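Our preliminary data section would be incomplete without showing what the modeling component actually yields. Below, a chain of 636 amino acids is followed by its predicted structure, encoded as tokens that our downstream tools consume directly.
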Amino acid sequence: MRKNNGHLIAVIFIIIIAVVTSFILSRTTITGRVSYGIPEEPVQEIQEGGISYNIPEEPGSYESAAVNCGDSISVNTNLTENLTCNGSALNLDENNIYLDCKGYTIRGNTSSSGVRVMSNYNVTIKNCIIVNFTRGIYYKNSNGTAVNNTVYLNSKGIYLYNSSDSFVDNNVLYNNTQYGIHLLLSNDVDIINNSLDGDYVQIEHSNSTYAFNNNISASVYGFYATYSNDFLAENNTLNNISTTGIWCGHSLNCSVFNNTVDNSLSGSAVSLISQNRSRVIDNQLSNLKHGIIVNTGFYNNITDNNVVNASDSDGAGIGLYYSDFNRITGNILSGYGKYGMNVLDAHNNTISNNSMDSNANYGIYVDASRNNTFYRNNVTGNHEYGVVLFNSSYNTLQEMLSVGNNRTGIFIKTTSGNKIINNTASNNSASGFYLAWSNNTNMSFNTAEHNYFAGINSFMVESSVFESNSLNYNFIGLTLRNSTNNTLIDTSAEGNSGYGINLFACVDTTVSGATKLFDNNADGMIMLRTNNTAVSGVNASSNNATGVNINLFSYHNNITDSIIIDNKLSGVLIEFFSSFNLVNNSNITSNDRYGVELDFHAVNNTVSYNNLSSNILGNYTETDYSVNNTFVGNTG
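Predicted structure:
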């Protein structure tokens, strides 16, 4: 019995010792740099910027031990003191863990990494201040979340290498010498709510990056994404960027939405370089050398951006270079140093419903470009030209408004096969339209009024059609010089302070249809050194000089089936060595001088079958060596 009692007492003693030991161990804390415990499974969902992701919950309890520089951590860890390390500071070597620095600083000696994650997943680094490493935070072959950290004076602030499905959120980065945030071979990374000062984001060979609501200032770039498809930059603010705010290159589907870029001194707000099927929409871009640049890009969409105020005299609101099949619409381009829009060697693009005003040189400048459509763009108040089409062929300008420019509204030179349809070019300080060294142009249904010189000013034009243009209240309605084989149909040139139509040194011109040359302050039409013109169906009336004037060595011109009445001088004047011209079957009446007047060596002309009644000084006259002219079948 006593033996059994002793056995029972021993068992009870062992049980008491085990319980007391367990209690003591559960209550004891060992002081050191860090404390840590076993991670727990439950997670909480975080939503930010239209996305959601999961992070482990804070551990409820910790085991604790001292951790030094260079140690590896495999459990959730809170930092309790600052660390100053030579080489790498901390390595996180387990899945699904936290490092929470609680605002303490990890400082290095410019080498290795502050916090490194190698081949582990769902690892979070937060609330750390990391200074003076080669890589402040480094994920390699891993993924996780870097959140609420301050990272500065490193070479790379936060570096993700082959670390997809990660999050970089709400960090402050500044004065890192190479990059603030660097992604390489890391897909599906979200960069949200970060602040970078003097740093930028470099994205290389990393697809589906989402950058939302970041603030970047005083840096070389804002975002630089190369060989990275499906990059989306949304609602970011970039200030004082020295080269390019958002740079996308050699990729597909870069999307730039609703960003603000201000004050890029020598570069552009957005650059798409060898970039295809990308979108730049609803951005506010100001005080820049260039607004948006597309270089060697295809099927991109540039829409509804506000691009204002150049910081350089050679800048462009939008530059489209060596790029095809792009769509540029609904943009405001104002106050740029040289170009509102510059298009160079770009083909098959659609440029529509844009507004370009108050740019220093040109609203739109197009060079060496083909098959583009410019539709319903407003180009107003530019300091030189509204639209320039140079060395460019088979383009269409339609329903453009080019008014109030300091030189010509629409300037076309060295081109072929362009269609200039239903545009308005008025109140410009030179001409409404200027067409030179061009052929096979269709210039129809345009309005050019109240321009300082000509509604349409043409030089060295060949095989072109001018149809149904309204050219009123200019100095000259239409002037065509040194040109061959052109057709003018249904022209209206009224109320001009000089000529309605001026042909100088032209050959094989046709003027026909319901052409109205009314109330011009000089001649309705004048031909100088012009040959083989066929004029029919013209109404040249109530002009302040002659209805039609054939002058200065002009030969073989025909006026038929026309109405020439109520002009202040003669109905038709042929003079100054002009010969072999025909005036036939026209109604030439009620002019203040003669119906037909031949003066100063006008010889071998024919006036036949016209109504020459009611002209004040007579039906016709020959003066000053005008001989050998034929008058037959005329009435009145």
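The first helix runs from residue 2 to 27. The mean pLDDT is 90. Preliminary results of this kind motivate Aim 1 of the renewal.
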